[in-house]
Write the structure tokens for this entry.
Amino acid sequence: MSRADIAGVGVRVRRSWSLGLFAGEFTVTLRRWRTLALLAVLAAVPVLVGIAVKVESDGGSGGGSGGGDGGAGPAFMAQVTNNGLFLVFTALAATLPFFLPMAVGVVAGDAIAGEASAGTLRYLLVAPAGRTRLLLAKYVTTVAFCLLATLVVAVSALAVGALLFPLGDLTTISGTRITFGEGLARALLIALVVAASLLGVAALGLFVSTLTTSGIAAMATTVGLLTTVQIVDQIPQLHAIQPYLFPHYWLSFADLMREPVYWDDLQKNLGLQALYVAVFGSAAWARFTAKDITT
Amino acid sequence: MAPYASDDTTSGRRKAVRYVVPATVVGVAAATIGLVPALADSGDPDLPKITAQQLIEKIAASDVEQLSGTVKITTDLGLPDLGGLAGSLASAGGGAGGSKDGSSADPSARLTELASGTHTLRIAADGPDRQKVSLLEDAAEYSVIHDGTDVWGYDSASNEVYHSTAPQGADAHGKEHGKGGAEQAPTPKEFADQALKAVDGTTSVTVDGTVHVAGRDAYKLVVKPKDSASTVGAISIAVDAKTGLPLKFTLTPKSGGAAVVDAGFTQVHFAKPAASTFDFTPPKGAKVTEGDDADHSVAGKEKGGAALPGAAGLGGLDGLNVLGDGWGSIAAFDTGSGSGLPSASSGGDAGAFGDFLGSFGDKVTGTFGSGTVFKTRLVNALITDDGKVYAGAVTKDALVKAADTAAKK
């Protein structure tokens, strides 16, 4: 099968081909209006949150942001007025449950099924790259999009936070103080962890994408699955299966703001994402390399 | 036009074979999740046998002053899940009591949270002057920091700070204890003798093998009440074999089932914690509430860690009698209202609430009259219709008997 087809091609050629395949895929993905619209929505969330917090803190008498209901709203909300860097964490906490995975689900769901429905998949396979390689390029593209989408949220939040609120040394949620530089480093680390948290959805979306030839169906299924899993994760009676649901430990990225960092849930989160990638990635491979491509 | 489409008939089986890969991944993951904890648990540490007396000596001789670690506390009192209701009751009570300035960073407001569910705490200590306890929440943390003369409470969710000063006496006492300890305090051996002698008639104290706790080898000390009326089945304490520090505390009810209280280290280090751990300055813009002196007891209790929850609250009640002794002791007091639970006939919201509350209890009668028994998995309480309250970690029958005896007097 595919291995036999590429057997004669030199290693160097193959490697550069992979890179070229990935670069091409990534550019194509970024050129889509759909992708740009998703990124614009993601960039707008921190702006909205920032303005809302700013308006409320200016309007509220006494300057303090309503202390009584500290638990309401996304995490870190109470600290945003005092340090703009916290807007990065608030924005990531606000977008991680739905906006970010939805965007990733759209891109991942579109990866194979979109090509199939546009009738371009067979042309991609004419090139001597092999199906495994194409699938890998598609997944790497989706992973790159996970990182890009997270960074868009983080950078937008940092810009809005710097414009609207003071910056400076910050207090971790454990009550210790860290410098602004260390705070920035932690923000970057948090963005990476958030991007890694999306790998499971990306693999799930890619698998769904190999099942159908309709791009819309694959996107809708992935986003629908995401919502269903999120709901299941909220039902107390189902607590026995919740630790195995991919979004269960998503908000553990906040543990990076503890001093010392609390790694338990972070490790569980990353381990769970790796498991989902292994299961759905190999399932996507099994499906894609064995299926008849007719469009 | 489909160069990579399958083109031979024999590949049908090979297609199916590919799905073995994801199936294997799932299988290996499931096996790992199932087996690893089982493998990690197997095999208790091999430690030299010691008697209960020697183990208590070890605890008493323990001089751990520097440690940091993570503690998991699970409490299951078998109360109906009244999370929201308890909150609204507390706020209603607070409003009536006039404590309007209640801060969410006030330590006493947070203690009740530990009464149900599972919580993760982080503990750091460096000598008698510097300790820190943090309650880990979702994307937030509540910390109590004792640094010299300052006691800070910081609630990161609401960005509120609570501040009070630690009594100087506590520090002085600590130092004095350190210096003169050898002369005044009993030696560990004497302490163990006294402790065992004191509980001899009512309690059995044994060493029940060894366990691994937080990656350390520990002895298991089991304390069992001999009193049949007690609802306490057993208290087991895992004691670190090297340092003598108690690492895990489990209280199982006589009725069986899950532990009522299960508190233990999941990680522990005996190195000196970083000095910055105890440094606290209120963040910019945080709302700071200054505590009054009355809160020292709370700070003290948190430091002690082992104080029974609710014990301080009971002590504050006037007219409290303790009937019986040891495990079977029952706290009795008169609410002074002359009536039991407010009932619908007494009118108003209180009546409706009383009826609602009464629906959780069992009606009992005896020579004392009649009343309502509220049961949890550990503590039972009898509220008689004439307004007397009997409560203790004893069975329902023991409560009725105590009420009968009191009525005869």
Observations:
- Confidence is low (pLDDT under 50) at residues 1-10, 61-71 of chain A.
- Chain A touches chain B through 54 residues (CB under 8 Å).
- The first strand of chain A starts at residue 170 and ends at 171.
- Chain A has one domain: 2-61+71-290.
